[in-house]
Amino acid sequence: MTPRDVACQELVELLTEYLEGALPPDEVAAVDQHLVDCDPCLRYLRQMRATGAALRLVPAEQVTETLSDQAVDTLLDAFRRRR
Amino acid sequence: MLRVARAHVRSHATAEEVVQETWLGVLRTLDRFEGRAQLRTWVFRILVNVARRHGKREARMNAELAGPTVDPDRFRGDDDPDWPGHWRDDGLPVDTDPEPALLAREFRDVLAAALGELPERQRAVVELRDVHGFDAQEVCELLDLTPANQRVLLHRGRARLRAAWEAAS
């Protein structure tokens, strides 16, 4: 069976499901078929994937909210008293 | 059961989750079934409760998650004679090889800043998945999300971050 035609505008919304392995096989075939012929969408796919990968290089402390000084003190206090 | 669930929720995937959760609920509470109602009625009552809960959650999600992740103006209209729905020449994604660009420090700073601007749940999913490396199932459990919703949040979050570094490049 020939995969259905997917337009670029629809394809870009399927890419995370595609990358996550959550698309049914016939939809995977449709996406694959489109990507063979469409450089801009292939580029978009690689950029979405690379965005996720690049975030692994962002230091966790740069993005994670930190506890207030008071909360840290309370925790440290509790730890100390355990000993 | 799927059909009843489907009347309360918007996607087939969520309806399947509702049915699955219903059976789990049935199994968990089977001891308490007193036989006053028909078993079938009892099962469907559980189904409707589960489906309503999912439906409400979905409605909340959809308010935040409606609409496309890429500006529709970047695509040709449905009336385009040649390539409806395809990229317009002036709307193409930036022609940068993403891997080297994203390794650069300034791009990481752009990403980290854009991450801080994401709506709360998108940010939570992207952070846990991409910064901390949790897998999809773990994130669903931590944030009490269905697998389908977890993917939607991840998709929207990553798409916004991609757009952020595209705009900066």
What can you tell me about this protein's structure?
The complex is a heterodimer of chains A (83) and B (169). Chain A is built from five helices and no strands. Chain A starts with 7 loop residues before the first helix and ends with a helix. Chain A has helices at residues 8-19, 25-37, 39-55, 60-63, 69-82. The radius of gyration of chain A is 22 Å and the shape is elongated. By secondary structure, chain B is an all-alpha fold. Chain B is 67% helix and 0% strand. The longest helix of chain B has 27 residues, at 39-65. The radius of gyration of chain B is 21 Å and the shape is elongated. Chain B starts with a helix and ends with a helix. The model of chain B has no long low-confidence stretch (mean pLDDT 88). The A-B interface holds A 7-10, 12-13, 15-17, 20, 22, 38, 40-41, 43-44, 46-58, 60, 62-64 and B 68-70, 72, 75, 83-87, 92-96, 98-99, 102-103, 107-108, 111-112, 115-116, 126-127, 129-133, 136, 147, 151, 154-155, 158-159, 161-162, 165-166.
Write the layout of secondary structure elements.
The complex is a heterodimer of chains A (83) and B (169).
Chain A: H1 8-19, H2 25-37, H3 39-55, H4 60-63, H5 69-82
Chain B: H1 2-8, H2 12-29, H3 39-65, H4 98-103, H5 105-117, H6 120-131, H7 136-143, H8 147-168
Helix pairs in contact in B: 1-2, 1-3, 2-3, 5-8, 6-8
